[in-house]
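ingest -> fold -> write
write: protein_1
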Amino acid sequence: LPGLRTVFGAFHHFPPEQAVALLRSASAGGRPIAVFEFQRRDLLRSLVPPMGFVGLSPLIAHWTAPRRWWRPLLTAVPVIPALWGWDSLVTILRTYTPDELVDLARQAAAPGYRWEIREARSSGRDRITCVAGFPDPRGGVALVEY
């Protein structure tokens, strides 16, 4: 594909072999790619979202369309909140760390192609992780820290 390839909030769904293949396809073709992840893997973030989803699920159910008087009762049997919590936990635990992203980029390296892994503050203590790959005669892999 010509142009910039992008992956927003989905890179953690790829096991390492597929993640390297995705990155390698961009580097081998000399195409730029940008991968963004909006969560980090750490203990606090592993526990807070699932608990928040379970606690907020009756309110969320109340405001979903179409509104029905019985919809909050769906949370009495906490299957849906438990699934939301499980999905959040697994997502956070599968998110690659910056060091792991450096390793994946090294495996996908190609001559004349550069990889930069960056973590930028989004709000408060939250961070956005970006993997940027682009043609550059210098080549290599860099972990850019702010």
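write: protein_2
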Amino acid sequence: MRIKHILLSLATLLACAATAYADEGSNQVVSAAGYGAPPQIEGLSGAQRRLMSMRASKLDAYRALAETVQGFRLAGNSTVAALSVQNDSFRTYVDAYLRGARVVSMNALPEGAYETILELDMSKLSSESSSNHPYMMRGR
């Protein structure tokens, strides 16, 4: 039971890295925020660091949007010895096909980080677009 509590706590902490929410109105708009930090790789110019941070924030926002629309799978593993956790790890898996998401904003944050806000209008998704790809709006 304690291991499940730890895994749930870690999953909740991971979910806080990016935020997503659905509009309760009739528009059914889902928004997600993603964050990216500049890489600490030697030899990169300031422009390269900035572009990589921007790209990371956009990918993180897409991941958050996919988790909100599609859900995610959590796999965990814990090793306990002498009633003490020796090793505790988990992974999340997201598998989604998103079409029609748009970048609402991309903002520079302190220390070279970026925030990207994405939006997806669920009411504009047609049954035709969902039938064109096996993963659209359907879990694996």
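write: annotation protein_2
The first strand starts at residue 19 and ends at 22.
The CA atoms of residues 93 and 108 lie 28 Å apart.
pipeline exit 0
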